[in-house]
Amino acid sequence: MQAVSTDLPGVMILEPKVFDDPRGFFFESFNARRFAETTGLQCVFVQDNHSRSQRGVLRGLHYQVQQTQGKLMRVITGQVYDVAVDLRRSSPTFGRWVGVHLSAENNRQLWVPEGFAHGFVVLSEFAEVLYKTTDYYTPEHERCIRWDDPTLAIDWPLDGAPQLSAKDQAGLSFADAPVFP
Fold this sequence. Notes:
single chain, mainly beta, five-stranded antiparallel sheet, 2 helices, about 40% strand, isomerase, dTDP-4-dehydrorhamnose 3,5-epimerase, RmlC-like
């Protein structure tokens, strides 16, 4: 596994070693020892999530204000554009975002640390996303920032308006959203 830095310190792209042959391929999607060696992080993942969405579905920008979650994202079918936004007021990159294409073909994973909002949009006919979290989902602590907030100015690769859940339609502006110290 190789870690590739992004423009946001702490947010990393992880590229596994893939073994291809005429029968198909094999790779370790997660190995705690290699994750720690590669990233320098000692994480305990407590929950695995699996979502399936069709083209144009945008999920996010989500985060929890308590029981914060680090997320290790990967795509097993299709392609998404995955975004992390720094919500740590004390960070020099506060309010900045990074976007990464994740797909079943490139096998990349995105590590989104605690203190970041997260979202993705589906670029293929449909996509299945698997992700690990470092804390449990708690709806009472979940918050959502608008995907199209003008302050963040995320350059989503969209053809037209995205499909949003009611929760995401009601997202707060970045200026009104609670952030971290």
